[in-house]
Amino acid sequence: MNEKNPPVRPVARPVDPLNLQQDGWRIFQIMAEFVEGFEHLSNVAPSVSIFGSARFSPDHPYYQLAEQIARQLSDAGFTIITGGGPGIMEAANKGAFAGRSQSIGLNISLPHEQHANQYQDMSLTFRHFFVRKVMLVKYAMAYVILPGGFGTLDELAEIITLAQTHKSQHAPIILVQSAFWQGLLNWLKETLLAHQTIKPEDLDLITVVDEPQQVLDTIFEYDEKRRAETGQVGRTTLYQ
Protein backbone atom coordinates (compact mmCIF):
# COMPACT_ATOMS: atom_id res chain seq x y z
CA MET A 1 0.00 0.00 0.00
CA ASN A 2 1.26 3.46 -0.86
CA GLU A 3 1.18 5.37 2.43
CA LYS A 4 1.13 8.69 0.63
CA ASN A 5 -1.97 7.74 -1.35
CA PRO A 6 -4.23 5.64 0.88
CA PRO A 7 -7.28 4.13 -0.81
CA VAL A 8 -10.43 6.20 -0.80
CA ARG A 9 -13.02 4.87 1.59
CA PRO A 10 -16.49 5.87 0.41
CA VAL A 11 -18.94 6.78 3.14
CA ALA A 12 -22.44 5.54 2.52
CA ARG A 13 -25.14 8.06 3.36
CA PRO A 14 -28.32 6.37 4.49
CA VAL A 15 -31.36 7.35 2.46
CA ASP A 16 -34.38 8.30 4.49
CA PRO A 17 -37.51 7.78 2.33
CA LEU A 18 -39.40 10.32 4.43
CA ASN A 19 -36.79 13.03 3.84
CA LEU A 20 -36.73 12.20 0.15
CA GLN A 21 -40.48 12.62 -0.04
CA GLN A 22 -40.34 15.90 1.87
CA ASP A 23 -37.64 17.22 -0.45
CA GLY A 24 -39.79 16.35 -3.43
CA TRP A 25 -42.72 18.32 -2.05
CA ARG A 26 -40.38 21.20 -1.17
CA ILE A 27 -39.55 21.58 -4.87
CA PHE A 28 -43.22 22.28 -5.58
CA GLN A 29 -43.36 24.78 -2.70
CA ILE A 30 -40.37 26.62 -4.16
CA MET A 31 -41.91 26.59 -7.64
CA ALA A 32 -45.16 27.96 -6.24
CA GLU A 33 -43.30 30.84 -4.56
CA PHE A 34 -41.53 31.72 -7.80
CA VAL A 35 -44.79 31.62 -9.78
CA GLU A 36 -46.60 33.82 -7.25
CA GLY A 37 -43.77 36.33 -7.22
CA PHE A 38 -43.53 36.48 -11.02
CA GLU A 39 -47.29 36.90 -11.38
CA HIS A 40 -47.47 39.80 -8.94
CA LEU A 41 -44.30 41.65 -9.92
CA SER A 42 -43.92 41.15 -13.68
CA ASN A 43 -46.04 44.22 -14.47
CA VAL A 44 -44.48 46.46 -11.81
CA ALA A 45 -42.30 49.06 -13.52
CA PRO A 46 -40.22 51.06 -13.11
CA SER A 47 -39.11 50.02 -9.64
CA VAL A 48 -36.22 50.49 -7.23
CA SER A 49 -35.26 47.99 -4.54
CA ILE A 50 -34.08 49.45 -1.23
CA PHE A 51 -32.02 47.45 1.29
CA GLY A 52 -30.82 48.11 4.84
CA SER A 53 -30.88 47.03 8.45
CA ALA A 54 -34.07 45.94 10.20
CA ARG A 55 -32.70 47.29 13.51
CA PHE A 56 -32.96 51.06 13.10
CA SER A 57 -35.82 52.76 14.96
CA PRO A 58 -37.93 55.60 13.48
CA ASP A 59 -35.90 58.23 15.37
CA HIS A 60 -32.61 57.06 13.84
CA PRO A 61 -31.07 59.30 11.14
CA TYR A 62 -30.66 56.33 8.77
CA TYR A 63 -34.37 55.47 9.09
CA GLN A 64 -35.29 59.06 8.31
CA LEU A 65 -32.86 59.18 5.39
CA ALA A 66 -34.37 56.01 3.91
CA GLU A 67 -37.86 57.48 4.24
CA GLN A 68 -36.79 60.67 2.44
CA ILE A 69 -35.11 58.74 -0.37
CA ALA A 70 -38.14 56.50 -0.89
CA ARG A 71 -40.56 59.42 -0.84
CA GLN A 72 -38.58 61.26 -3.51
CA LEU A 73 -38.27 58.15 -5.65
CA SER A 74 -41.98 57.43 -5.27
CA ASP A 75 -42.94 60.95 -6.27
CA ALA A 76 -40.61 60.59 -9.25
CA GLY A 77 -42.64 57.61 -10.45
CA PHE A 78 -40.67 54.67 -9.07
CA THR A 79 -42.36 51.77 -7.32
CA ILE A 80 -40.40 50.97 -4.16
CA ILE A 81 -39.64 47.34 -3.30
CA THR A 82 -38.23 46.30 0.09
CA GLY A 83 -37.94 43.20 2.23
CA GLY A 84 -41.13 44.30 4.00
CA GLY A 85 -39.82 44.25 7.56
CA PRO A 86 -38.95 46.89 10.16
CA GLY A 87 -36.07 49.39 10.23
CA ILE A 88 -34.82 50.64 6.86
CA MET A 89 -37.39 48.46 5.08
CA GLU A 90 -40.24 50.07 7.01
CA ALA A 91 -38.82 53.53 6.42
CA ALA A 92 -38.62 52.96 2.67
CA ASN A 93 -42.13 51.52 2.49
CA LYS A 94 -43.39 54.42 4.60
CA GLY A 95 -41.85 56.99 2.30
CA ALA A 96 -43.22 55.24 -0.78
CA PHE A 97 -46.65 54.79 0.82
CA ALA A 98 -46.88 58.55 1.29
CA GLY A 99 -45.73 59.19 -2.29
CA ARG A 100 -47.26 58.83 -5.73
CA SER A 101 -46.19 55.28 -6.53
CA GLN A 102 -46.65 51.79 -5.17
CA SER A 103 -45.03 50.51 -1.99
CA ILE A 104 -44.24 46.78 -2.13
CA GLY A 105 -42.99 44.55 0.67
CA LEU A 106 -41.49 41.11 0.02
CA ASN A 107 -41.66 39.62 3.48
CA ILE A 108 -39.90 36.55 4.81
CA SER A 109 -41.51 34.07 7.19
CA LEU A 110 -39.26 33.78 10.27
CA PRO A 111 -40.07 32.30 13.70
CA HIS A 112 -39.31 35.41 15.75
CA GLU A 113 -37.46 38.13 13.91
CA GLN A 114 -39.54 39.73 11.18
CA HIS A 115 -43.01 41.17 11.06
CA ALA A 116 -44.46 42.93 8.05
CA ASN A 117 -44.62 46.71 8.33
CA GLN A 118 -47.90 48.52 7.77
CA TYR A 119 -46.86 50.67 4.80
CA GLN A 120 -47.38 48.23 1.94
CA ASP A 121 -49.74 48.53 -1.02
CA MET A 122 -48.70 45.03 -2.05
CA SER A 123 -47.43 42.47 0.43
CA LEU A 124 -46.01 39.06 -0.46
CA THR A 125 -44.59 36.56 2.03
CA PHE A 126 -41.91 34.01 1.16
CA ARG A 127 -40.64 30.98 3.06
CA HIS A 128 -37.32 30.79 1.23
CA PHE A 129 -34.70 33.53 1.34
CA PHE A 130 -33.33 32.73 -2.12
CA VAL A 131 -36.74 33.09 -3.81
CA ARG A 132 -37.25 36.41 -2.06
CA LYS A 133 -33.81 37.62 -3.15
CA VAL A 134 -34.59 36.79 -6.78
CA MET A 135 -37.73 38.92 -6.57
CA LEU A 136 -35.88 41.81 -4.91
CA VAL A 137 -33.31 41.82 -7.71
CA LYS A 138 -35.15 40.72 -10.85
CA TYR A 139 -37.58 43.59 -11.37
CA ALA A 140 -35.55 46.58 -10.12
CA MET A 141 -33.90 49.11 -12.41
CA ALA A 142 -31.71 50.34 -9.54
CA TYR A 143 -30.59 49.15 -6.11
CA VAL A 144 -30.25 51.48 -3.13
CA ILE A 145 -28.32 50.05 -0.20
CA LEU A 146 -28.39 51.86 3.12
CA PRO A 147 -26.41 50.85 6.24
CA GLY A 148 -27.11 47.30 7.36
CA GLY A 149 -25.69 44.08 8.72
CA PHE A 150 -24.98 40.58 7.41
CA GLY A 151 -28.27 40.34 5.50
CA THR A 152 -27.63 43.63 3.72
CA LEU A 153 -24.05 42.60 2.91
CA ASP A 154 -25.33 39.29 1.54
CA GLU A 155 -27.79 41.07 -0.74
CA LEU A 156 -25.18 43.62 -1.83
CA ALA A 157 -22.64 40.90 -2.66
CA GLU A 158 -25.18 38.98 -4.72
CA ILE A 159 -26.27 42.09 -6.65
CA ILE A 160 -22.66 42.98 -7.47
CA THR A 161 -21.84 39.38 -8.44
CA LEU A 162 -24.80 39.18 -10.81
CA ALA A 163 -23.75 42.44 -12.46
CA GLN A 164 -20.07 41.48 -12.58
CA THR A 165 -20.82 38.14 -14.24
CA HIS A 166 -23.47 39.64 -16.57
CA LYS A 167 -26.14 37.37 -15.16
CA SER A 168 -28.36 40.40 -14.67
CA GLN A 169 -28.73 43.61 -16.61
CA HIS A 170 -26.42 46.32 -15.39
CA ALA A 171 -28.24 48.76 -13.13
CA PRO A 172 -27.09 51.42 -10.67
CA ILE A 173 -25.88 49.96 -7.36
CA ILE A 174 -26.00 52.89 -4.97
CA LEU A 175 -24.48 52.81 -1.49
CA VAL A 176 -25.89 55.53 0.77
CA GLN A 177 -23.79 57.10 3.55
CA SER A 178 -20.16 57.17 2.51
CA ALA A 179 -18.85 57.24 6.09
CA PHE A 180 -20.59 53.93 6.87
CA TRP A 181 -19.34 52.16 3.74
CA GLN A 182 -15.83 53.61 3.57
CA GLY A 183 -14.19 50.76 5.49
CA LEU A 184 -15.67 48.18 3.13
CA LEU A 185 -14.67 50.20 0.07
CA ASN A 186 -11.12 50.54 1.39
CA TRP A 187 -10.96 46.77 1.94
CA LEU A 188 -12.19 46.09 -1.58
CA LYS A 189 -9.43 48.28 -2.99
CA GLU A 190 -6.59 47.42 -0.61
CA THR A 191 -7.23 43.69 -0.34
CA LEU A 192 -9.36 42.28 -3.16
CA LEU A 193 -8.04 44.57 -5.87
CA ALA A 194 -4.47 44.31 -4.55
CA HIS A 195 -4.67 40.50 -4.72
CA GLN A 196 -6.33 40.72 -8.16
CA THR A 197 -9.41 38.80 -7.07
CA ILE A 198 -11.45 41.59 -8.66
CA LYS A 199 -10.74 43.95 -11.55
CA PRO A 200 -10.58 47.76 -11.29
CA GLU A 201 -13.70 48.07 -13.44
CA ASP A 202 -15.64 45.94 -10.94
CA LEU A 203 -15.46 48.84 -8.50
CA ASP A 204 -17.13 51.04 -11.12
CA LEU A 205 -20.31 49.03 -10.59
CA ILE A 206 -20.77 50.87 -7.27
CA THR A 207 -21.80 54.49 -6.73
CA VAL A 208 -21.54 56.08 -3.28
CA VAL A 209 -23.77 59.01 -2.27
CA ASP A 210 -24.92 60.82 0.85
CA GLU A 211 -28.04 62.81 -0.10
CA PRO A 212 -31.48 61.73 -1.37
CA GLN A 213 -31.21 63.91 -4.47
CA GLN A 214 -27.94 62.21 -5.39
CA VAL A 215 -29.79 58.89 -5.48
CA LEU A 216 -32.30 60.26 -7.98
CA ASP A 217 -29.60 61.97 -10.03
CA THR A 218 -27.59 58.74 -10.26
CA ILE A 219 -30.61 56.76 -11.48
CA PHE A 220 -31.69 59.38 -13.99
CA GLU A 221 -28.18 59.86 -15.35
CA TYR A 222 -27.87 56.13 -15.89
CA ASP A 223 -31.34 55.94 -17.45
CA GLU A 224 -30.62 58.80 -19.84
CA LYS A 225 -27.28 57.26 -20.84
CA ARG A 226 -28.93 53.89 -21.47
CA ARG A 227 -31.68 55.48 -23.54
CA ALA A 228 -29.19 57.47 -25.59
CA GLU A 229 -27.27 54.27 -26.34
CA THR A 230 -30.43 52.43 -27.40
CA GLY A 231 -32.01 55.34 -29.28
CA GLN A 232 -34.94 55.73 -26.87
CA VAL A 233 -36.36 59.15 -26.09
CA GLY A 234 -37.48 60.55 -22.75
CA ARG A 235 -37.25 59.31 -19.21
CA THR A 236 -38.56 56.07 -17.82
CA THR A 237 -40.42 57.71 -14.96
CA LEU A 238 -43.10 60.28 -14.26
CA TYR A 239 -40.49 62.66 -12.90
CA GLN A 240 -40.99 66.32 -13.88
List the helices and strands and how they pair.
Layout: H1 17-41, E1 47-51, H2 61-75, E2 79-82, H3 88-97, E3 103-108, E4 122-126, H4 129-138, E5 142-145, H5 150-164, E6 173-176, H6 178-193, H7 200-203, E7 206-209, H8 212-230
Parallel strand pairs: 1-2, 1-5, 2-3, 3-4, 5-6, 6-7
Helix pairs in contact: 2-3, 2-8
Spell out the key features of this protein:
240 residues; alpha/beta; Rossmann fold; seven-stranded parallel beta sheet
Explain the overall architecture:
The model has no long low-confidence stretch (mean pLDDT 90). It is globular and about 65 Å long. It has helices at residues 17-41, 61-75, 88-97, 129-138, 150-164, 178-193, 200-203, 212-230, and strands at residues 47-51, 79-82, 103-108, 122-126, 142-145, 173-176, 206-209. Helix 2 runs parallel beside helix 3 (88-97) and helix 2 (61-75) runs parallel beside helix 8 (212-230). It has one domain (47-230): Rossmann fold (3-Layer(aba) Sandwich), CATH 3.40.50. Helices cover 48% and strands 13% of the residues. The chain has 240 residues and is an alpha/beta fold. Helix 2 (61-75) links the parallel strand 1 (47-51) and strand 2 (79-82).
